[in-house]
Every structure is written in C-alpha cells, then in structure tokens.
C-alpha cells in the first residue's frame, strides 16, 4: 500500500491529515510538543467491527496488550473485546484495572517470575504455562493461597508457519511445551490440583497470507484434538493464536480477512463442533487490532544537503519508533509509509531521507522517500504506528524526552 492510501483512511482537510477528525496542526498544538503518537478511536472501532462481522460468532476476540499497552487504548478495547492477554505484572495490573473480568485475562510468555505467577493465581487469571517449572510454581502458588489455579498449556507445535514476520512455533523454541511432551506432562499433573482449561498455540506473527493462516489454524485444531485425549476434562479454552498481519511497505497487500474467516467458519462447523464441542475458540490479536489506528508525528528540525542527498532531520527517531528504523524484525530494511502531514495534498517534488536526532546512522526513518518539498517545522507522519511503537523502542537512549500519546 502507498502512503496516500494510508492517509485516505484517516482523511484530509484543507491539505492536512486529520486525526480523530481534527487537523494535524491543531492536534499538534493541543498536544503541545512533538514527537507524539496519536491513535484514532474511530479507526480502532472500525477494525473491531470488521472482525466481528467477518469471524464466526462463537470465536472470542482477545487483545494482546503487548502490542500497545497505553492505558486509554486498553480501557477502550476492554469495552469492545472479549478477553485481554498480558505478558507482565504491569500489563496484568492494567488489565485488572479495566472492565474485563479477571477470569477473561490470560497471562503468557516465557520466564514468568514466581511473584507474577502468584499474582495471577490470586486474581483468578488464566496462566498459560510454558514449562514444567511454571506448572510447579503455579501449583505452589495455589497451595499457598488456598485456591485452584486456572491454567492453559501453551504448546510448541510440531509444525512451523511460513511467511510470518517472527516464527514462534515449530522446531526448538523458548515458547511453550513441545507438543510431543504434552501427553506425559498432562498425565503427570492431571491430579495436581489444577483446573486445566485447554491449550494455547501461537505459531507466528505478522502474516499477510490468508491461506497460510488458515492452514495453521486447521493444524492447530487437529493437534489440540489429539492432545485433548490426555485432559481429565473436556477442552474449554482453545486459543488459536493470531498472527494476522498489516501492510507496512508499498509491496505489502492487506490480509484477505474474508478468506481467513471462511476457514474459521469451516473449523467451527466441522472439527471443533465434532471433536471439541465444549471449547471456546479464541483468536488473540494485537497488531491487527491496533496497528493501523496509530501514527507517529515528528517535526522537521533541520533540512540539509550532503553531496547531493537531501536530509530531513526530525525531533523523533528510533528511540521512539524502533520498528520504522528497520531494527525490529526486518531482514531487509524497507520504509514504513510516511508523508508530510501538513502538506498531505501537495504534489511530490523531491526525494528526501528522513533521519532522527540520535547520534547513530541506524536512526533512519525513511530512506530516499518521495515527498513534497518539506521545510523546517513541517510535520512528518509515519503510519502503521498503533502497535509495537513506543514500548518496543529504546526510549532511554541519549536521554531525550518521552513522546506524548493521545487517543483521539
């Protein structure tokens, strides 16, 4: 997708990008300083509505908070989704402070500290255990607190998902218990005072291929159906993971959600209904829910030409948005879509390279980008910034102020 296509999703007014219906320059004045992240509530709601309309009604939506833990975003999504997934004690507290009930919060991730596990067990959160060590810690916490812990087994499947930005299943992994080990684990801990609800399998992230996602979901259901024979009770929780991708570069095409939904409808009406009738299927999404609702806005501090190449130096950079610099999972660096936000309708008339204010050549936000002529104080807007932005970046590097975040 091209930058102007992303801009069209937000809209323009008198040549300026609009965010939450507000002209960019007015929003920047209201925020008071650049850089800042802005998340558009309308686009966020539209994405939830799109998913609700496409996916089977039996499928529950879980928000993976790691994608964007901004409190206002979490509070808003808590009113729109069925569940929230957390990966730390801080995220856990944010979820518990929302309107989501504790039993609808799941806690995943390798290396959970004993204190975090105790907090989760005490709150009644589903602990998605990733090793036998974690199972033992959950049991100890339950014994100490006098409660029955609620857990799901995170499984490292015996298949890998091609085309994912990051592979998180198949082969050796720090994530989950290897599928071939799960039967013995269940036999050993079936009578250990645990409420084992079911399974979580998440094989990969940022996938734009609907056929691959559908195949992974089919294989996940087949695997869970086999493992269900070793559970002392029927499977009640079937976390199919997510991995739905969004387009970041011009060569990317949006995920065919209807094709993914068709595969899920077939699974719900077929093997899940037949083999796992008491299971609640869950699709856990982070990036796909919030990624496209956000922008990063940064101001041009300097314009310079070095040996024929034009540089726009901005007051932001990779310390706020590591992914856009290409240093967060890109094998080959490609530009994220960006525009001069206060000249959104101005024709392109130069190629410029947008760099941040840090003392490293890695601080590159846009390389040789086609832009209208940009001057000092113009506002550069980078799209697809609703996920894995501020909290996935090295904000302490060089001691620059943290950017603001606003939900508009």
Automatic annotation (TrEMBL):
Residues 46-290 form the Orn/DAP/Arg decarboxylase 2 N-terminal domain. Pfam families: Orn_Arg_deC_N. Keywords: Pyridoxal phosphate. Its cofactor is pyridoxal 5'-phosphate. The keyword Ligase does not apply. The keyword Transferase does not apply. The modification N6-(pyridoxal phosphate)lysine is found at residue 66. The active site is at residue 359. GO terms for biological process: lysine biosynthetic process via diaminopimelate. CDD domains: PLPDE_III_Btrk_like. One of its GO terms (molecular function) is diaminopimelate decarboxylase activity. PANTHER family: DIAMINOPIMELATE DECARBOXYLASE, GROUP IV DECARBOXYLASE. This is Pyridoxal-dependent decarboxylase, exosortase A system-associated. It comes from Lacisediminihabitans profunda.
